[in-house]
Amino acid sequence: MSEVVTYQREGAVGVITVNYPPVNALGHAVRSGLLAALEQGQQDAEAKALLLVCEGRTFIAGADIREFGKPMQEPGLPSVVETFESSDKPIIAAIHGTALGGGLEMALGCHYRVALDSAKVGLPEVKLGLLPGAGGTQRLPRLAGAQVSLDMITTGNFASAAEALQNGIVDAVESGSDVKAVGLAFAQKVIDEGKPVRRVRDLNDKVEAEKGSDIFDQYRAGLQKKARGLFSPFKCVDAVEAAFQLPFADGMKRERELFMECMESPQRAGLVHAFFAEREVSKVPGLAKDTPVRDVNSVGIIGAGTMGGGIAMNFANVGIPVRLLEVKQEALDKGLAIIRRNYENTARKGRITQAQVEERMALIQPTLSYDDFADVDLVIEAVFENMGVKKDIFGTLDKVCKPGAILASNTSTLDIDEIASATSRPQDVVGMHFFSPANVMKLLENVCGSQTADDVKATVMAVAKRIKKVGVLVGNCYGFVGNRMLHQRGAEATKLVNEGASPQQVDKVLTDLGFPMGQFAMSDLAGIDVGYRIREERRKAGEDVPASWMDKLAEEGRLGQKTQAGVYLYEEGSRKPVVDPKVDALIAEFRKEQGIEPREIGDQEILERCMYVMINEGAKILEEGIAARALDVDIVWIYGYGFPAYRGGPMFWADQVGVKEIYDTVKRFHDTLGGDQWKPAALLERLASEGKTFGSL
Ligand code: T1G
Q1: pLDDT at position 484, please?
Q2: How far is CA 289 from CA 218, 328, 447, 473, in A?
Q3: How far is the CA of 65 from the centre of ligand 1 (A)?
Q4: What is the CATH number of domain 603-627+635-696?
Q5: In whole angstroms, what separates CA 142 from the centre of its chain?
Q6: How far is the CA of 23 from the centre of ligand 1 (A)?
């Protein structure tokens, strides 16, 4: 008898129960257990119908992703589903939590489906670089038609129980939380009404009706933009189209072919790595799972600018009251007006109601006085990057905030320990680095200083989860993980232009790799003045920061999108970068002044110099312990800097390119170009010599 799947008859219903925490994934034991339990049900003469139900928090949430890339063990999922479908006793699936991927495919193999009203269903395989591989692309269209199937399968978005009922995916939706009772009642109704076995594979009306539809080409066209660089979304369309062109059995064969193409694609490996890495980053090595967390039921935010306003929205969105402080009333009014405008935009798109707009605005209380921070649990400072100003603020917070309040800075580069030194409680000081726009970007880079207490670290990681961010805990250094690596890429990209490349050539190499925008388009978005001010601060601090053509842009007032001219031009109301010959002339002038003879630079050199300098820096960050694992670096870049998730993040990508190849190239650049940024990291050298990967760390 399987441990994870049991069979028991209750009255005239044979109940097949899956119990395989955490999410009843269809690992080998579950697949073989399902077949064994089904066999029992078939043999059980008293059982007039069978019920498939799950213990725990959810119905089957898919195939066991941990088995991907390993040799497949029989029985395979398609045959388990087919065996259920072929049963001559009606089988009912009772769904609670999330029926996803292979889990929904199991339910589609059953003859009837009933769901709790809180349940969700989906085929999210595309998010893992795959497509439904156990009949989902052939059975779902037979119930829900082309449009709904294409939407669900190419986006991977979940449908609510109500939507699933409306689209014919489930037959009934019941309220309550006892899914087994709901399932048993439905099964008894099937028996009492003598309802027949109803195999989805035989329901051909919908696929016949839409045979030859051009909806599939429309979808392919739409995906050109939406799924740029991705492999599996297009295979999803091919598979669903097969359901409308081929008999069921041939459609299943076509689905399997396309599924295997996706399984072998490197994108699958990258996306599966990103899936697990996103979950692993919340488990911080060296921070005990049961480390106590402090209560955070009220938050104070200093600065109602772009960052402060966005940060405030994150807390209001989850019902946590915020006090938003500014030095001047007009700055406060301006900040609140922008927050309200953002909420009303979201309401206009139907994602929240006007009542929710008012509710959230009511949770954000403006103030001009630090005294209003006396009893808040967490304060986040979000003022412009100036150490002196930040230390003044933290000195004030040290006086007004209650003992045990967490004092956080949203600084994106500055030293957390130096900020903490302005207080008498450095153990309560931490960095919480949000990314612009802070109410949208998923990453929260939590930065611990040398004295930050463990319960403060645990608390800011828990806060990240509460405000629906992906929190990554990193150490304190200039630029932490993300900006430290970005800084190296930016400097190398600027040098490549000095030497002969054009900004648009460099940006195209990065967008071809899968980034949503290139280095210089990103500088225009962030503001050319931001980088310029940081370089000037460092020059004032006596650092040798070389002259740059970017400085000339700033000095000419070309600050980027906000002035409609930076590295690129921007038409009124457009964010589309347009190449400006004036910038090419400015760069040519700069080269002349610097005595640089420009040369032809190939895309491969641009890729290697922009990406390998980041990876070398990532290796230094790992050997210094600023990031605990390579996956932490990957998640910072995927959720903070638009690194294409299908490449798994910079360190995972480095393993796919080959650590030896990268080390050899970094060494070559060190010999030819020089500079500390090209001095091979000891870790990179060691992994290359031992034939190991960053993933093996
Ligand atoms: N396989 C293995 N482990 C899984 C898993 C899965 N399918 N889903 C979740 N886990 C683990 C996860 O790593 C974590 O582990 C724990 O469960 C809780 O997850 C043929 C091929 C279900 C909505 O893509 O979307 O079926 O970190 O932290 O926020 O067509 O997990 O605790 O050790 O995410 O409540 C399709 C993936 C597979 C669904 C729950 N299915 N999972 O979210 O918890 S491909 C999916 C999710 C497939 C077939 C194909 C979410 C969730 P740990 P969690 P959560």
Answers
A1: 97
A2: 49, 43, 19, 14
A3: 7
A4: 1.10.1040.50
A5: 32
A6: 7
Q: Say how far apart CA 148 and CA 158 lie, in whole Å.
A: 11
- Is the predicted pLDDT of residue 373 greater than 90, yes or no? yes
CATH number belonging to the domain at 299-476, selected among 3.40.50.300, 3.90.70.10, 3.40.50.150, 3.40.50.720 = 3.40.50.720
pLDDT (0 to 100) of residue 441 = 96
690 alpha carbon, distance to own chain's centre: 32
Ligand 1 centroid from CA 92, angstroms: 23
From CA 283, how far away is CA 338, in angstroms rounded? 35
Given the CA of residue 66, which atom of ligand 1 is nearest to it?
2
What number does CATH give the domain 501-594?
Answer: 1.10.1040.50
Question: Model pTM?
Answer: 0.95
Q: What is the mean pLDDT of residues 346-353?
A: 93
Which atom belonging to ligand 1 lies closest to the Cα atom of 100? 41
What residues are annotated to the active site?
A: 105, 125
pLDDT in tens, 483-505: 999 999 999 999 999 999 999 99
Domain boundaries, the chain: 5-264, 299-476, 501-594, 603-627+635-696
Residues with CB under 6 A from ligand 1: 22-23, 25, 61-66, 77, 98, 100-102, 105, 124-125, 128, 130, 132-134, 136, 276, 279
Tens digit of each residue's pLDDT (9 = 90 or more) over 400-409: 999 999 999 9
**Average pLDDT in the chain:** 96
Range 5-264: architecture per CATH = Alpha-Beta Complex (3.90)
Q: How high is the pLDDT of residue 379?
A: 98
Q: Above 90 in pLDDT, residue 346? A: yes
234, 153 in Cβ contact below 8 A?
no
On the question of a common fold for 5-264 and 299-476, the answer reads no
Please choose from 60, 65, 271, 284 the residue to mutate so as to test ligand 1's pocket, defined by most ligand atoms within 8 A of CB.
65
DSSP E strands in 224-281: the ranges are none
